[in-house]
Amino acid sequence: MNEEKSPNLDDIEPAELILFQVSECYVYLIPPRKTAASHRADEWDINKWAWEGTMKVVSKGEECIIRLEDKTTGELYARAFLRDGEPHPVEPVIDSSRYFVLRVEENIGGRLRHAFIGIGFRERPQAYDFQAALHDHMKYLNKKKTAEEMEQQYQKTSSVDYSLKDGETIVLQLKNTGGRSVRSKFFEQGLDQKEKGKNSITSILPPPPPSPSLSPPVNAVKTPLDSPSKLSLDGSPKDSFSTAFDKQSTEPDSVEKQTAQDVPDDDFGDFQAA
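^ that's the sequence the OP posted. Answer follows.
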């Protein structure tokens, strides 16, 4: 009984993916570039192309192939390769957005030959799509390269052994918070006031006691009990003063017993006359 061997993944040829295709592509035989300046399409006879056919941009693994084929038979006319790390095979001209210079190559007799030809498209959107397909392939190569570098970095870091060896311990320093969750002071005061409003009974505090009144000095002379509230237009200062003097003479004996030396000797006559 013959055993079937599983195919090796390296021996499997990658599938081809068409990124761009146009049925009208024109090829021009261009003169060699004499200076370092870029090519110009107005130096070609764009109304006299050397070949007309189909262009395909095919992605095959990490390789991108630009193929020029016959419309009817599909015969290969020329091809160019876009590879990572090699010069770009497509160069735009400086005077038009629909024409390019293509670096084609072929292996002839074991030797790699290359040549430069001019290509052109009938519509400008076709030229934009052609450049976008090449750009997408380069983005794919960059992302694949980045993914491979990340995988290699992961393999290096994953090989490090972080397990504890014999005799090794881990010391954890935990802060004791007393079993209380940490809350901000603002919200904590708000919650306390809310709970007090629900659970406690509102109490009215008595007003503070009045301040004790100051007792008058012992030797102070009492003022008259009744004083004139207002001055009369018809009365004189003499009548008002004598009325107040008569009332003052009716005070208790403690005031009358004052000696003549204690009471100042006022000249009432002279004061009234003044």
